[in-house]
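Chapter summary example.
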Amino acid sequence: MDKHFSNAQRAEVLVQALPYIKRYSGEIVVVKYGGNAMINQELKEQVMEDIVLLWLTGVKVVLVHGGGPEISEMMNKLGKKAEFVDGLRVTDKETVDIVQMVLAGKINKSLVNYLESNGGKAMGISGMDGRLIEAKMKNPKLGYVGEIVKVNIGAVEDLLNNGYIPVVSTVGCDKEGNSYNINADTAAAHIAGALNAKRLIMMTDIEGVLKDKDDPTTLIPEIKASEAKKLYDEGVISGGMIPKVECCVDAIAKGVKKVIIMDGRVPHSILMELFTDEGAGTMVHGD
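The structure predicted for these 287 residues follows.
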């Protein structure tokens, strides 16, 4: 906190946050984490601090993460060129092994370590553990890119009930023992739905849904799930934002109360969303 704040001002900030802490204490909040907030070291530390603070106030936080840039970096080191079709990584057998190594290994354990270092109690699992994410091949042209068939949420619930912050890497599996690369937004929506979460927070690299994609001041603060198709047709929601909003609508249909698309590059944006009236980003909710 700013060193120029007086003790009285600091106390006032805490008191102002009290109604929000009461609202979310004991509730499940799923955070999908990726993009620039994951690459920038300072932002990463702030996100981990936010999550530990939520956990300490009694919020049951589930952290679902991707790691596309680090997968591409590892592929380059191993002399393998990353290839994408419609924004999805073409994933042959060798690539899915790299995905599993980077997501379930390096990134997952690094995030667990950050949370523990900040005073949290975290446990890392992949979508393969406890068959959390059962999947099938989405499209043979994409290789081992998975489409989610079923979520077996018991392992995550057990961790929450035992006071842990579950950190989930988005690798899925099928009954034949194949591994699949799963889109992290999609996985977060399915997991949040299975948990009947109060909030799903989708951290991205833009402010939220914009009326004019080149003008950050045109942020749309909230969207009803039923309005999404109209916004697609009008071209307001376009490009890479289409699958993100589709995941939000899917999460609402699966039982999530509200979904937030927010800019993960803004320091402490999670706390701003949950513990202030103004919030952050675009909220998608049911009718």
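To summarize the output: The mean pLDDT is 88.
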